[in-house]
Every structure is written in C-alpha cells, then in structure tokens.
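Model it.
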Amino acid sequence: MRLPSSMPAEQALGQRRIGRWQVVGLACLLAALLLPFADLAISTPSPRAVFAALGRGFLEPDFRAVSQLGQALVLTVAIAFAGVAIGALVGLVLALFWSSALIRTVSLCLRGVHELIWALFIMTITGPSAPTAVLALALAYSGIFAKVFAEILEEADPRPRLALPGEGLSLSGLIYAKLVPSLPAFWTYFAYRIECGIRSSAVLGFVGLPTLGFELDTLFKQGQYGGAAAVLILTYLLVITLPLWLRRPALPLYVLAAIAYVWALPRLETSGLGLWTLISRDIVPAPLRNGAWADPAGWEAFANWLWRLISQQMVPGIVATLILGLFAILLTGLIAILAFPLIVRALTGLGGSVFGHVVLVILRSTPEYMLVFIGVQALGPSMLPAILALALHNGAIIAHLIGRQASQLVPTLRIDRPHGVNLYAYELVPRLSGAFFAYLLYRGEIILRESMILGILGIATLGFFIDSAIAELRLDRAVILIIGMILTTAIVDQASRRIRRMIGAQAVSATACR
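Modeled.
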C-alpha cells in the first residue's frame, strides 16, 4: 500500500496497526452480541461414536466398498478439467472487456452463485448428468476467472505497452504487451483453480452427480466408514499429487480428453423441465402467471408474495449466513495464528514441522463441504459443524501460507534473535500481521460464499431455502433467493475491500491463497 506523502511512514504504520486490532475487537464484540442467536446445538446422541467409527475407517480403509470407485474418480477429474478450462476461456474473454459495467455485472452474477446452486438449478432443466456438472463449474468459475484475469491484466507492467506506437492500444499491443507477459500468472491461477475444481467436482456428488462426493454420501448413509475413509483418502491423493502430474505441455491433452470422456458418457433417460418451460412458466412469479400480470390485483398479490418471501426466507437466510460466517472467520484467524508455528522448523524442530505439514495438508486438501458433511453426521445440522469445518479448512490454508513466510523470514533475522515463544510472539507475529490480516480477509470472502450453500446439508443459511425451493420445483422463489445471494456476495466484496483499505492490509493475489 502506498503511504500518503504528508504522513510519516511510522505514523501511518501505527495507525494501521491500531485499525487492525480495532476491527478485530469490534468483530469479537459483535460475535459476543450475536452468540445467543447462533445455533450451536449438538443434536446427535453419540458424536464420539461417529468420529471413532470414521477413525477406525481411516486405519482400515475399504476401497472395495466403493462400487464405482474407478468411474467416480475419473469422472471427478474429467469434470474438473472440462469445467475449469471452459470457465477460464470464457473468463479471459470477459476480462478483456472488464472496463464495461455490463461485463462486471455479468461476472458478479456468475461468481455470486455457488457451483452447487448452479448444478441444482441446471438439473431441473436438463436432468442429472456429467455435462450438467461441467456447465455448473464453468458458469461459476467463468465469473471468478474474469475478475482475477482482469486484475492480473491491470497489474501488468505498463512500460512495454507504452513503448509501442500509439501506446500499445492496438490489438497487437494488447496481445504482446499485456497478454503475453501475463501468461505465467494466468497459468499459476489456472493450476490453482484446477485444484479447486477437483474439490468442487467431488462435492457436486452430494446433489446426485456420480462423482466422489456421491460415493461418500452413499457410504456414510450406509454406515460403511471404511469405504467413506477410502473416498476421502482418494480425494487427498488427487489434490496432493496434482503438482506432480499437472504439467503445462500436457494441459491441452488433459482438457481434450476430459471433454471427450464427458461427452461420450451415456445420457440418462430422465430429463428436466426443459429451458422453454422454465422461462415461460416456472421462473415467472406464481401470482403473475396465466395473464395475471395484466390485472392490478395480480400485482398486489405479487407484492404480498414477494414480501413474505423476503421477510420469511431471504432475510433470515442472509442473517444466518452472516452469523455463521462471522464466527467461522474469527475461529479461522485463531486457528491460523496458533497453527502456523507447527511448520516453522525454528519453533518445532524437524519432526514437529513434518508433522505440522501433514496435518495442514490434510485439512486444506479436504473440501469444506465434505468436512461439514462429516460434522453434520456426527453433531447434527446446526451451525456448529459448519463453523468448525470452515475454520479448520481455511485456518489450515492461512497457517500454511503464514508458516511458509515465517520459515523464509527466520534466516533474515539478527543472529541474537529470540527463540521459542519469544521468537513467535515478539518477532514473527508482529512482522507477519499485515499478511495475516490480508489472507484472513481474502479467505473471509470465500467463507461467507461457502456459508450460503451449506444449507443444502440442513443448516438454515440462505442455501437451505434455495435448495428447498428447487426441490419443490418452486423455481420462481429460487430465482428471487438467488438474486439475494448475488447481492450479498456483492456487498461482502465491497465491505472486504473497504476493511482492507481501512486497516492497510495489502492486496492478496488469489493465486497465493492455496
């Protein structure tokens, strides 16, 4: 962040530090006030028994219990590659026209709806199929890619473009002075999104698509914890080994093979409502159907219908989402600040750092939705498993990032630096606080986005009401609630930017939050 010229650096730094901790204090105070409204109940008779059974399953994973293991594994990877590749291509096109307010609005609408909600909505039109999963991923990721690619292009070094005739405003100037220098950053982010896409593809199985999540859901419901552990182990292996087999020269081959595999799969006989039926009837608000839009009484009925929907479902869902997200963000920060020393060799030694790396890799490689699913099975459908799962996953990501920076920082400190707790408390934490808050705010946006869709598992966030509306084929209600989801995403994005500016936290590239 560039400091104002009229303010000394030390003074500005001091103000930023005060601002950061003031924000933390206000967030903790708000969480304390909202605590009576947070549903933290445990409704299952024996949570310990579920966790113990799953632990035994990890000790003796049963890969034979997964009936379609090979197909689910290949399909998970194929959907991820196809969906992310299409999303990246569309996102790049949108990023080239980012100066248009219309393009930015389209991007917001696309990324403001989670891929699970896209999948549920598309399934009502086309029926459940692998192309449905690909399209759901592509829609959500195209909006994300557009935003990130546009930021990468904006941050590109302007000197090559300005050195060209006409300041590089021609097509060739755009290609050679902006696009080509940005290709390494594009590739880094694409590789990161492939990792996210594999996790998202696996999770799409929870809404009926035959990926790894479908197998996990089925095995848990049947009480086959050894098989469930096998599915989780395969998910870890997919994500952890990704850097070993994801190579740039092989990328076109992977994408073409994925698209060909998905396209060649046999189509299910069941189908959805059809696009024309959806547009002409189902998304039209019920009070305005059958020509009622021409009758003033129809508009009065619509106003009452809309008010009930907003007051009884949208507002309670958004409030529950924000409460859940706030608690998850605070717990994420606590876990991250306490866990990052686990991978700093100067603090825990060689054995401790290896153990810390293993723990953080497992937690950050497990999709949040899978962690929440396991928590709901053990604790019941309250906010508690969602808060714990979101905090463990995102806390592990931030702890990994901060711990990696701390390991690089230690050798640069003075020779007589403190050790142990003093090194942690008086050297590393103060020096890394800016990066910590920046990462926390960036992951906070993701936490709130994920909190919305956890309602599919029975938690009363906004996603619960959207899922219920789609399940009952009340798509007019679902559309209004999805609009609320998009507006909430936009407000959260703006709030996060304002807070980052207020506390002086540097901007974080999404490619760093891996």
